[in-house]
Amino acid sequence: MMNAFNLGISGSWLLVLSLSLIAGIGTYFYYRYTVPPISRLPKIALFTLRWLALSILLFLLFEPVFTRVFGDVIEPKIAVFIDNSLSVKMKDASIDRDKQIRMAIRKSGILNEDPELLKTFIFDKDVFEIIEFHPDSLKLNGQATDISKAVRRLLPNDEQNIRAGVLITDGAFNTGNNPLYDITVLDKPLYTIGIGDSTPVNDAMVDAIISNEIAYLGDEVPVNVSVKTTGFPSGTINLTLYEDNKEIGKRELIISEGKQDFNASFEYIPSSEGDHKLLAKIDGLQGEITNKNNAYSNYIKVLKNKRKIVVFAGSPSPDLSFITNILKQEKNVEVKTYVQKKGAEYYDAAPNPAALKEAEMIVLIGFPIASSSDAAIQLIKKELAEGKPAFFISSRAISYPKLAQLEEYLPFKTMSGNSNEFMVLADFHEAASSHPLLRITGSDKDLDLWKSLPPLFKAEHFVQVKPESEIIAGSKVNNTALKDPLIVSRAFQNQKSIAILASGLFRWKLIGYASEQSKGNLEAPDLFTTFMQNSIRWLSVDRTNKNVTIKTTKHHYTIGEKVGITAQIYDASYIPVEDAMVKVRVSGGKSTSREVILSSLGNGRYYSEIEGLGEGDYSFKGEVFRDNRKLGDDSGRFSVGEIVLEYQNLSMNANLLRSLAEQTGGKFYTANNCGNLLKDIKSHKRFKQRSITTKKEYALWNMIWILSIAILLLAIEWAIRKRIGLI
Questions:
Q1: Dist. CA 242–CA 250, nearest whole Å
Q2: With a threshold of 0.70, does the pTM exceed it?
Q3: What φ, ψ does residue 23 adopt, rounded to 5°?
Q4: Going along 576-727, which residue ranges are E strands?
Q5: Which of 366, 395, 500, 603 stands the most exposed, by the fewest C-beta atoms within 10 Å?
Q6: Whole-angstrom Cα distance, residue 177 to residue 72?
């Protein structure tokens, strides 16, 4: 125990004392002769009051600080974490875990420890501190187990001097991090008491459904179902896959000594758009410990079977043929071309608003030209204004005045141009080497391949690149770099665009790839196809982003878990909307439908929670309003209680608990041999008192009461002077 005190100022104490002495001398002479004369005693009182007040004010001018340093000793404490999840309530191969965990709590002696030296927590998916703990208060009803979250409570905490941790659990964590990662920074031993039997139980379970998150209407989608069995030397399992309670297919799985893990494949063909639930279910086996893990579900979003891309061309050309061939090779892509011929006519039907509205991307190849109609250009402009991506390839026939009508949605602005052409090489920039458009293998050698491409035809089209655009490639003639960009990309306000300010792209295929193939270099990459595919893919990314996105935080919730609903709201310019009303109606299960209003979190984000939903499948639909005008809506599905995480792992994870103890310097026990737990903890070299030194500073110059004393002294002086009639 140590205490020390110090009074410091921001100047010299000698100066403070000197000024105080000068103030005292001045006050003495002030009161030496008074009118009228007063007796000695009042004179001494007045002198003392003024001198003290002046001295206090002078003292405060030097910003005095009082410092107190004191020491203390903190006794070591133990943090005990007790598993409160469903799995600890089960009867496994040979043990009633409910009885065993209560026995372990009593036998370990922690109930007899001084409450001041013990901090008790129960945990499942969260951690809760219990002030007065009793074993009978354990409900063992947690729907998930996060051991990592409990371990993180043991991270360095000098104020409480927690020097050891006790973890009483079956070790079957099913959410959060692997606790082995968290103990790497633990500075204290962790003692573990294993609950349950590590012997595999008789059980069969559906472990997972693996499928695409997004599928297309009418396309075949592979679905893989993982099934695991333990404890059964032989037998058969009937596995059925359902889509929204409609059977898709069946498989019979044969169990043997050497076959306990199964991966069954199904072919699923969606027949309608929207969110669909895939459910894999197995029949229960005789002697199985539980059938609550015999089903597993997942959700899949089914979109229209074709993504539509509209291509406008000023005239037939090799570029048009080569590019449309690549587009048609893309899976789930439907290409509609509008090619101009003489005047403003088209080889096929003229473009119409309905066709363009269904398009997800617009490609312009040498378009618009001088004879292109303003009506067609306005149709294109309207769709680009909706955020649809644009892919522009130049040509010598481009009409720059008409192109100016679309430049708002392109990555450049035309300064001048004419039809004169010259040959240029693409000068790919080092800074753009990591851009998705140039990805081949992902290695540094990709850029060398791009630099080997043959030249293109470039019209004298001089442009100004917009600030938010990125130059992928410049132009060069022979080895002389020009200032003109050749390939430019732009991602701005939820709209993407790519511009190639040259024509003759087919040369990359014929003179580049085809030439290498003819020489026998069969491994030469097809850079033209790669570039086009990368471009289409990059332009398509995030096209599913809408102005209104409403979804639940996950697809599956446990019983009793709050369902979180989030929303992101943007206006037509993709600027976050913070003053919208977001109403979401949830229906399904055995509950009546509920409506919730989401609260704004700022920056266009909204959130709310619904609790108390019973087991079942649910759907939701949200609508967004602003100033009584509907901005949009969104919908989705989720389920509650169908997948019980606590039944996914039914054996004690002794290996994990032993590793947690050994790697932290603690010890692993079972419920039967934990009687020496407290003795082992207290004999550990790290379990000791900790001395702390606390330093506190008080800025006296900033304390109003000290200044108040000086003012009070002056006030008393004035009152006495007034009473005795001093002038």
A1: 9
A2: no
A3: -65, -40
A4: 581-588, 591-597, 599-602, 605-610, 616-626, 629-640, 668-670, 690-699
A5: 603
A6: 37
Rounded distance, CA 100 to CA 439, Å?
58
Please provide residue 535's backbone torsions phi and psi, each rounded to the nearest 5 degrees.
-65, -45
Q: At what angle do helices 527-540 and 318-329 cross, to 10 degrees?
A: 60
* 271 secondary structure, DSSP code: -
Residue 74 zone, left/alpha/beta (φ > 0; ψ -120 to 50; rest): beta
Q: What percent of the chain has pLDDT over 90?
A: 33
Give the Å distances, CA to CA, from 184 to 157, 165, 667.
Answer: 16, 15, 16
Arithmetic mean of pLDDT, 371-389: 91
Question: Is residue 674 classed exposed, middle or buried when 0-12, 13-18 and 19+ CB atoms within 10 A define those classes?
Answer: buried
3-class secondary structure for 95-108? CEHHHHHHHHHHHH
Q: Which residues contact 18 (CB under 8 A, 6 or more apart)?
A: none
Query: Two tokens at 533?
Result: 């595919």
User: Residue-wise over 362-377: b if at least 16 C-beta within 10 A, else e?
Assistant: bbbbbbbbebbbeebb
528, two tokens: 């033209």
Tens digit of each residue's pLDDT (9 = 90 or more) over 596-607: 999 998 878 899
Q: Residue written as tokens 């509650």?
A: 640
Q: Is 312's pLDDT higher than 50?
A: yes
**pLDDT at site 527:** 83
Residue 274 exposure: Cα atoms within 13 Å on the Cβ side: 12
Do the Cβ atoms of 374 and 401 come closer than 8 Å? no
**pLDDT digits over 260-298, tens only?**
888 899 998 888 888 899 999 999 888 887 888 888 888
**Contacts of residue 128, Cβ cutoff 8 Å, sequence gap at least 6:** 121, 122
Nearest Cα neighbor of 360 from 322, 306, 321, 320 is: 306
* Number of neighbouring beta carbons within 10 Å of residue 443: 10
Q: What is the pLDDT at residue 543?
A: 45
Distance CA 473, CA 316 (A): 26
Q: How far apart are CA 137 and CA 34, in angstroms?
A: 82
Which of 233, 323, 360, 363 has the alpha carbon at shortest distance from 285? 233
Query: Which residues have C-beta within 8 Å of that of residue 711, sequence separation ≥ 6?
Result: 53
How are beta strands 668-670 and 307-313 bridged, if at all? unpaired
Q: How far, in Å, are 238, 267, 360, 529 from residue 304 at the CA level?
A: 33, 18, 12, 25
H/E stretch holding 150 reads helix 147-152
Beta sheet of 3-8, edge-to-edge order: 3-8, 65-74, 690-699
- Residue 129 pLDDT exceeds 60: yes
Q: In residues, how long is the chain?
A: 727
pLDDT of 661 reads: 94
Q: Distance between CA atoms of 699 and 62, rounded to whole angstroms?
A: 11
Before 368, cis peptide (omega within 30)? yes
Inter-residue contact 181 to 205 (CB < 8 Å): no
DSSP-derived pairing of the beta strands 469-477 and 480-492:
antiparallel
- Using CA atoms, how far residue 241 sits from 210, 247, 282, 325, 603, in Å, is 12, 6, 9, 38, 42
Amino acid (one-letter) located at 494:
N
How many Å apart are CA 488 and CA 490, to the nearest integer? Answer: 7
Structure tokens at 108: 């370990």
In 3D space, the residue among 615, 613, 610, 620 whose CA is nearest the CA of residue 643 turns out to be: 615
Euclidean distance between CA atoms 158 and 324, whole angstroms: 68
pLDDT band at residue 230 using 50, 70 and 90 as cut-offs: confident
- Beta-carbon contacts of residue 548 (< 8 Å; ≥ 6 apart): 567, 568, 569, 570, 622, 624, 631, 632, 633, 634
Q: What is the pLDDT of residues 17-43, one digit of tens each?
A: 999 999 989 988 888 888 888 888 888
At residue 659, the pLDDT reads 93
